[in-house]
């Protein structure tokens, strides 16, 4: 066994285990922890990793390969079609805009050939899919407007890598021989037009082989019912396609992305995603660690002005293009800033394009290495920029947003019911009331949602329900019932505080996502609390009892009794929750008490021989 390999593994894992928790403790992202860990153990600090980190990068880049495969798997044609406006619109505006500005700027101020300038501009226009998606996931922003817009731009960039790599050979001024120190591949030495044809041919081969060879093969493997064999097949697919792309000098991640797209519509999509995901997380961490270790500080020391000034200009250019792209699509100011800061770095495909350009002798090796140092530094800077935005810029822009936001709609109704929040939860209530001819005044502060609801025939008013003047305009002084159904628990609680203070006569029915939210509402003396998780879970439990042979009336009664007892328990626990020991003891006692009460209720029903709602009993009654 190679003890050196084990020692290297200990170094990598120890650095990650030490630095990542420290970064999280300081309120930084885990990505920054990995990057700093790589810098510390790299050749220019402690020297535990040699060759500027390349000994880990070849292995760690497999994490990016896994990630791109998973992104490809998620790219169903239907999903792509729904997001086409953002993918094609925002993505093309960002990529083309950034490339043009960088290209013209470098032509004016740099003594580079136009072919070199264009290749560098294309490489730097791409952002880091790995950093951005991981950051969005950590901050819980993946499903927000910013998250979807970021994903759309990154997806367009990942797809654009295919034509970019196919186009680059046409820029090569060398016909057969590349530079001696440049990376070599199977197509090195062929004419530029022939290299382009080969690249397109390989990509087409991956597409057809995936559809007509690998999917049928997965059917055969699935019949064996051996999970480990299926996992091995998934890894074989990713490794095989990646190796094929590497042979012709292209990015292994690009091949994995193509394979994922091919299998996106197969019935094995979710199974493959589950098998690959555990490998992706660890290897992505190693990739970030490798990026930190691969930063060539010697190049920075030799020419710091070029690296830092060029890196700052790159970040500024991408920030401006992204900001105005987001603004064109009418995003809010805080969303514009978050999107612009998040995607303002260069990405991992920049390393790929630089290596390919050295192979084609489009860019001199020294300049290519300097550009790769700029790429790495911009990736390291991203978590810091996001932290500055989060701690300093966002609080100020948020207050400005409040000042310039859209005025509340004029409300010309005076209904007995007011509903605040008309998402999935609130709209269900509204539709039920409307079906029973109960008129309600509907408030919501999501302008996009309001536009859709109005097209569907709902009369919805725009406004912030936490503002007293809006509540008065909505008729809270004369209304009988207020339904607080806002998605955000914090905002929902602020609305209730205002109602309790200014409209004490008004009966409130409020939404709570879970028991924790309910505790806060109980503290504000709210009586009618409806927990999403409680009612949906009890309904499922009732259906499960019926499927297992229990009488429907008995199961339904048990469900109602369970809700009744659990609501009583929740109010008891709200008082005890600040004392951890007392809280745990009360939970245990209440669980035992609930079980006893439910059993007693069953016995009382048996004694009374109550069979209402049971199908056989109903049939007998109908027959009579």
From TrEMBL:
It is a multi-pass membrane protein. The chain crosses the membrane at residues 6-24, 31-50, 56-75, 87-110, 116-136, 148-170, 190-214, 250-268, 280-299, 305-325, 337-356, 362-388. This is Kef-type potassium/proton antiporter (CPA2 family). It is found in: Endomembrane system. GO terms for cellular component: endomembrane system; plasma membrane. SUPFAM superfamilies: NAD(P)-binding Rossmann-fold domains. Its main location: membrane. Keywords: Antiport, Ion transport, Membrane, Potassium, Potassium transport, Transmembrane, Transmembrane helix, Transport. The keyword Transmembrane applies. GO terms for biological process: potassium ion transport; proton transmembrane transport. GO terms for molecular function: antiporter activity; monoatomic cation transmembrane transporter activity. Pfam families: Na_H_Exchanger (PF00999), TrkA_N (PF02254). Belongs to the monovalent cation:proton antiporter 2 (CPA2) transporter (TC 2.A.37) family. It comes from the Bacteria. Residues 414-530 form the RCK N-terminal domain. InterPro entries: Cation/H_exchanger_TM (IPR006153), K/H_exchanger (IPR004771), Na+/solute_symporter_sf (IPR038770), NAD(P)-bd_dom_sf (IPR036291), RCK_N (IPR003148).
